[in-house]
Specification:
Pfam families: HATPase_c, HisKA. This protein is of the alpha+beta class and 461 residues long. It folds into three domains: 10-153, 2-Layer Sandwich (Heat Shock Protein 90), CATH 3.30.565; 175-302, Helix Hairpins (Orthogonal Bundle), CATH 1.10.287; 308-456, Heat Shock Protein 90, CATH 3.30.565.10. It is 51% helix and 18% strand. The chain is built from nine helices and twelve strands. A five-stranded antiparallel sheet has the order 1-2-3-5-4.
């Protein structure tokens, strides 16, 4: 009677024949649940489910159905489960669906199912066993089985008294829950009144804030107009001043060239040195004036790209020849890698050349030894041109600031002694965006920098 089942060792097996057995099955089910460590509420739920099944089989059906009740525990499962099976041969016409619809036990157990086994119907219920300090081993289950078989069953009257006590306890718990619910409803009503008052206050404050936001928006719009006007005035000033400065600066360069010409009157060594300084300073000033003029044009929108099909290999070849003249130091190598043919892009050749020349000059200016390398490749619908160097690099927190006009990284002198204006990179980024792309930078101090130009293969002008 207590051998292993399909689910695990059987703890108890009982027979259900008549109405008094319903009380006995209920009592023993509660004892089995308590023995395996279930909480009191779970014990009552299992007992109630067995009571409902028993009453239906021996009282509700027109012909009482004799049934066998089996309690077993899964040993290897995690968590372990108490499996209760009721096997009965009900009257003809009773089907699995009939029993499933008549016995609504979903809230009392974890799972409930009805299956046919030949002429018999097997009602199977499971309930998870709370995780104990140690699992229910076969040895422990043997002890529980022996204790259950040795315990005496109570009479129907005693079981009825136990049920009444459980009902009274449930009623008392329900009453306490009802009182708690009333208290919570009162607190909720008080909270709702507070929330309503707070909502009214917040609505008034929000209206006041909205009025302030509207006024601030109007003020910001006015300031925006003023800023646009100031920006336009600045651009006009830069363009005009740059244009006016180019002529005298060019004249200074021409005069120093005449002074230094061997055909002119000879100069002393000191005079020649001073003339060279004047010419170098004038050349730097002319470069600054030209960059200011270009930047002013870019800001004012006066630059309109001339869209044509450009062969990148040609552009790279021209830059290789013109920029290599600057790489006069043997410690720095200029490497321009031609892209694989065909290397066509629709862009403005002059503006693109300015961007790449600017990046190459910047790399040579801040690289003491190593190389400055330019490559290009296609990535989807984009050309990706990279100019990398092995120079001094830029800290991460300053990598966006170098694209601001006139900004120069503090404590970052050029190892070549060349002086910058802080306008080359901002101008290169503006031109890149004007061509439908963008200019980005990655760098690490002491390990060099990489400037990446993304340009569309076929931009939409």
């Amino acid at each position: 009677m207590t051998g292993p089942s399909a689910t695990g060792p059987v703890l108890l097996r009982m027979t259900l024949r008549a109405e008094p057995d319903v009380f006995l099955v209920r009592q023993r089910g509660r004892e089995v649940a308590a023995a395996v460590g279930m909480e009191h509420q779970d014990q009552v739920r299992l007992a109630t489910a067995l009571s409902e099944i028993g009453r239906y089989l021996v009282v509700t059906l027109a012909v009482p159905a004799r049934a066998e009740v089996t309690f077993a525990v899964t040993v290897d499962a995690t968590p372990q489960v108490l499996v209760t099976e009721v096997t009965a041969v009900p009257p003809a016409g009773t089907t699995e669906q009939t029993l499933t619809e008549a016995l609504v036990l979903g809230r009392l157990v974890d799972t409930f199912s009805v299956a046919r086994d030949g002429a018999a119907l097997v009602l199977r219920m499971t309930r998870r066993i709370p995780a104990p300090t140690s699992p229910l081993t076969p040895d422990r289950l043997d002890v529980i089985r022996d204790n259950l078989n040795a315990s005496a069953a109570s009479t129907p009257l005693e079981e009825m008294a136990e049920q009444n006590e459980q009902l009274l306890a449930a009623l008392e718990q329900t009453r306490a829950q009802r009182d708690e619910l009333v208290r919570l409803n009162e607190e909720l009503a008080e909270t709702n009144r507070g929330v309503l008052a707070l909502y009214t206050q917040l609505s008034e404050e929000l209206d006041e804030t909205n009025r302030g936001v509207v006024a601030l928006h109007a003020e910001l719009e006015e300031r925006s107009v003023q800023l646009r006007a100031a920006s336009e005035a600045k651009s006009r000033f830069l363009a005009n001043v740059s244009h006016e400065l180019r002529a005298p600066v060019t004249a200074v360069i021409g005069l120093t060239r005449l002074l230094l010409d061997p055909a002119s009157d000879p100069l002393t060594a000191e005079q020649r040195e001073q003339a060279e300084l004047i010419r170098g300073s004038a050349a730097d000033l002319l470069s600054l004036v030209n960059e200011l003029l270009d930047l002013g044009k870019a800001e004012s929108g006066a630059i309109e790209p001339n869209w044509t099909d450009v062969e990148l290999r040609t552009v790279f070849g021209q830059l290789r020849g013109t920029v290599r003249a600057m790489a006069t130091r043997p410690e720095v190598e200029l490497v321009v890698v031609d892209p694989a043919p065909p290397a066509l892009i629709r862009t403005d050749e002059v503006l693109l050349t300015q961007v790449l020349r600017n990046l190459l000059h910047n790399g040579l200016k801040f690289t003491a030894r190593g190389e400055v390398r330019m490559t290009a490749e296609v990535d989807g619908d984009w050309w990706v041109v990279r100019v990398s160097d092995t120079g001094i690099g830029v800290p991460a927190e300053l990598q966006e600031r170098i694209f601001e006009e006139f900004y120069q990284v503090p404590g970052r002198p050029s190892p070549t002694g060349a002086r910058g204006t802080g306008l080359g990179l901002p101008y290169a980024r503006r031109l890149s965006r004007l061509l439908g792309g963008d200019l980005r930078m990655t760098s690490e101090p002491g390990a060099g920098s990489t400037f990446t130009v993304h340009l569309p293969l076929r931009p939409t002008p």
